[in-house]
Design brief:
The complex is a heterodimer of chains A (128) and B (177).
Chain A (H helix, E strand, L loop, with lengths): L8 E4 L3 H13 L5 E4 L2 H10 L4 E4 L8 H10 L8 E5 L4 H10 L3 E4 L4 H12 L3
Helix pairs in contact in A: 2-3
Chain B lengths: L6 H26 L2 H4 L5 H33 L5 H17 L2 H29 L37 H10 L1
Chain lengths: 128, 177
Amino acid sequence: MPINKNMPILIVDDYKTMLRIVRGLLNQIGFNNIDEATDGTMAWDMVQKKPYGLIVSDWNMEPMSGFEFLKLVRANPATRPLPFIMVTAESKTENIIAAKQAGVSNYIVKPFNAVTLKQKIEAVFGPF
Amino acid sequence: MAVKLTAEQLQSEIEKIAMYISQAKMEIAAISLPDEQSGTDKNLSHAALELAEVIRHTEEATNTIMDNAEAVMKLSGNVSDAKLAAKLSEHAAGVMEACSFQDITGQRISKVLKTLQQIELRVGNLVKLFGGTLPDGFEVGAIEIGSRRPDEDLLNGPQLGKDKPSQEEVDKLFKST
């Protein structure tokens, strides 16, 4: 899948500092078209209104978690092909297995850096 | 070997137990009372407030650190020495990345906060069970049993350092699943 660095990216996290960090890291690796959501409900609303090229989401959020959001994205034919990277502090084996089975494109454990984020985006879209 | 007690000794033992229960009631009530009623700030409500303040202060400090790191990144664009500019930008990015500690510590503190709230709830219920009176405005809700969220059994929060897998280990597991 060739990458378009102008594609809209949705980042989802309930911590404003984390949204700022992820946005900064994405800027650093060349992506500038970024929208933010603070939980799965808000994110789900946004993906239905705008054709995003990538979702980078946290897991542990309320009222709707990133995992529940992922399942909604994969259950809907219009959003099913959307690349979805989970960025989370949940690092137990059962979390990684559950996310993979739910159709996550890649899995990043917090804390992380720009190199890791770039590697995982490249794993989805190919090198850039 | 069975010990035979006289009626007086038995009464004395029962009185000691009653005193012990009475003392326990007061101590249990004290840890769940707000500062003004317990006369101390060493109670569960206060501990929860202190932790909430820790989250707020670290968030504020993190934002200030990030503001400054971003300013350094912008300024690095004006540095004529390209190598120095790249180094400045790299270090400022490192500072930004390190700020993710706020999310991890925030999640850990939230976990402790929830535990304190559960203890407070249970202590409150225990006071009621003992027949004690709770102060005005002190609500004791029902203890929730079962999951509140569909993926609650998967929400463990950050793991302790010794148990936390590296990104490489996560990648390996992710590929093999």
